[in-house]
Design a protein that fits this description.
Length: 395
């Protein structure tokens, strides 16, 4: 025991030192230039021609220093349930920086963004071809380089633009449950261009009546809130690269990227202390841990977000290339839905293993009612694209 204690102490001191160096380095990083998602508009020109226009804004948040943008390019990935061959795409970027003369050759000319200033760009995407009408999503990547106190930093802004919107009639198949009737509701692929209340108004209210309950999956809500990070944007540090081996292979924290996403969210000290604090409980037999209710201590100590991280492949395309975090303040979302639509609401995490976790709910919904209604996972975990479920209590 003494040897184990000594090893843990030495390892802990080394880890804390590495964490301190890592945090100190990260605090020194400059180039705090943000590119916003902006507003996007889909303009169907004809059955075979669609134009997508996005207006985005650079915001320089670097302390007292200017930042340059020497390079900017774009890439567009089209997703469809049919072949995309034959679709041509033309992408152009219009620079709306102050005192900038637009070039005819579309070359991106380096420019400076002063501290605290905002500068806009416009992305135009023209899609033409017989298969344009079958497109589901345009995944837009704005790839740019910042140049400033942080050196040269490669950045990518991901914008997922939905192109296909199901009709209300596509969600009419009610299913019986133990205490209610269930209606999984099909939506377009939800993105961070959406608003949860507007989604409920558009897809749920036409089917709803007084007394109904609407639930939204935790991952779709997190995506709406923009809480997803591409795996190439994650920069695993010393702690993530070592602790990830301590998790079961099925865990979303078993990769350096997945664990780093959690570290960036709750902090390296908390993750490290949660790991150390959970060690004494790991040596207990599983049956005893369950009996004493001390299983999964790391996730308890690290906080609720540790349970909600979905690693790469954990969600439907194109989010299968992203680490999706848990939603922010789901209770406020539930309260807002009820206030603006009159429906009771809940944010849930449900899987095919008959596990139902209620992240938040309006105060008028009994928890056991939700668990019984959702235990068969009516929304599904595949590509059903039914992130919203309407529950109607049995009379």
């Amino acid at each position: 025991m003494m040897l184990l204690w000594l090893l843990l102490t030495i390892g802990g001191l080394l880890a804390l030192a590495a964490i301190g160096l890592d945090l100190q380095y990260r605090r020194r990083l400059g180039n705090a230039l943000e590119l916003t998602t902006g507003a996007w508009d889909i303009q169907p020109v004809s059955p075979t021609h669609c134009q997508i226009v996005g207006k985005m804004v650079f915001i320089n948040r670097t302390q007292r220093l200017d930042i340059m943008v020497p390079e900017l390019t774009t890439d567009v990935q089209l997703l469809s349930k049919a072949s995309t061959q034959g679709i041509t795409k033309r992408v152009s970027v219009i620079n709306h920086f102050d005192d900038f003369d637009q070039r005819e050759d579309e070359y991106w000319e380096s420019d400076i963004i002063d501290y605290g200033k905002k500068e806009g760009i416009e992305v135009r995407i023209d899609l033409e071809g017989e298969a344009v009408g079958s497109l589901q999503v345009a995944w837009v990547k704005v790839i740019y380089t910042t140049y400033g106190p942080g050196g040269q930093t490669h950045c990518v802004k991901h914008v997922i633009v939905p192109l296909k919107f199901p009709s209300i009639e596509e969600s009419k198949r009610w299913r019986p449950a133990e205490n209610s009737d269930i209606l999984p509701i099909k939506t377009h692929l939800l993105t961070n261009l959406d608003d949860p209340v507007e989604v409920v108004k558009q897809y749920v209210l036409p089917h709803a009546q007084k007394g109904d309950v609407v639930t939204i999956g935790e991952s779709p809500l997190a995506i709406i809130q923009g809480r997803f990070r591409h795996y190439m944007d994650l920069k695993p540090g010393w702690l993530a690269k070592r602790l990830c081996y301590m998790f079961q292979s099925t865990s979303s924290l078993a990769t350096a990227g997945g664990l780093q996403a959690l570290i960036d969210l709750v902090g390296a000290p908390r993750v490290f202390l949660a790991f150390v604090g959970s060690i004494p409980f790991k040596v207990l037999p599983y049956s005893i841990s369950r009996k004493l209710n001390v299983d999964g201590m790391f996730y308890r100590l690290a906080g609720e977000q540790a349970n909600l991280v979905d690693d790469v492949t954990g969600t439907i395309p194109p989010y299968d290339q992203f680490v999706v975090l848990g939603p922010h303040n789901p209770q406020a979302v539930c309260d807002r839905i009820q206030k603006e639509t009159g429906l009771s609401a809940a944010i849930v995490d449900v899987n095919d293993l008959r596990r139902v976790k209620i992240l938040a709910a309006t105060s008028d919904i009994p928890q056991n009612f939700l668990e019984q209604a959702l235990i068969t996972n009516p929304a599904g975990n595949a590509n059903e694209q039914t992130p919203v479920v309407l529950i109607r209590p049995s009379a």
